[in-house]
Specification:
Elements (H helix, E strand, L loop, with lengths): L1 E4 L4 E8 H9 L6 E3 L8 E7 L6 H15 L3 E16 L16 E8 L5 E12 H12 L3 E3 L6 E8 L11 H12 L1 E17 L8
Parallel strand pairs: 3-10, 5-8
Antiparallel strand pairs: 1-2, 2-4, 5-10, 6-7, 7-9
Helix pairs in contact: 1-2
Length: 212
């Protein structure tokens, strides 16, 4: 798990693989990189860092990129492939996105609502000081496809939504539930199209003993 605190400028990753750290640092999904030694997906590391000031998400990612290059001697090159992607755009109604409150921390929480059998029946998603680009990174993993933000909305927002299954979609993490919730609860549309997607091909990395 990766967390960073804003305001505060603190970054932490617990039991994270190098592959996951690369994904977070470069804002890519698991399907957007290939190559590299097998231990990149098995060895786990704890990383804690504190920026000099109130570092933003983008500044934290740059800091982690430097760490990966210095400590792991990470080397890679880029390739481009055309793939189906999801595109987020504004709907017919004003988006239900609200300005963050003063002093509010950057946070995303997904809370399962559990039934009598102990299994999740729905999920409540609550975000504070969260950008749409960060939201697309989170949901791209669920959808298994890149999500592109074309709303034209920059900055951070507060928002919430519920993913509630029905008879046709019994699983609370069904992608169609996410698409419907974004349209009906946030006022955003999600459609598919083919677009060029950036890939990282990892050319090499040096193994670092955990704890160093």
């Amino acid at each position: 798990m990766v967390r960073y605190t804003y305001p505060g400028g603190r970054f932490s990753a617990n039991a994270a693989t190098l592959k996951f750290l690369v994904e977070w640092a470069y804002g890519i999904q698991p399907f957007q990189h290939s190559g590299g030694p097998s231990w990149m997906g098995t060895d786990r590391y704890d990383v804690v860092a504190k920026a000099a000031g109130e570092a933003t998400d983008a500044e934290m990612k740059l800091m982690l990129r430097t760490l990966l290059a210095d400590r792991f001697l990470l080397k890679f090159h880029h390739e481009s492939k055309k793939l189906p992607v999801y595109v987020i755009s504004l709907g017919k109604t004003p988006p239900k996105l609200f300005p963050p409150k003063d002093g509010e921390a950057h946070f995303l929480q997904v809370t399962p609502q559990v039934g009598q059998d102990g299994k999740p029946t729905s999920y409540h998603v609550a975000a504070t000081r969260f950008s749409l680009t960060q939201l697309t990174d989170v949901f791209a993993r669920l959808l298994g496809s890149l999500v592109v933000n074309e709303t034209g909305l920059d900055g951070d927002f507060d928002f919430s939504m519920d993913l509630t299954p029905d008879d046709n979609r019994p699983h609370p993490l069904d992608p169609s539930l996410l698409i419907g919730a974004m349209r009906e609860q946030l006022g955003l549309t999600l459609k598919t199209r083919t677009a060029p997607v950036d890939f990282l091909v990892i050319d090499g990395a040096e193994r670092v003993a955990a704890g160093n």
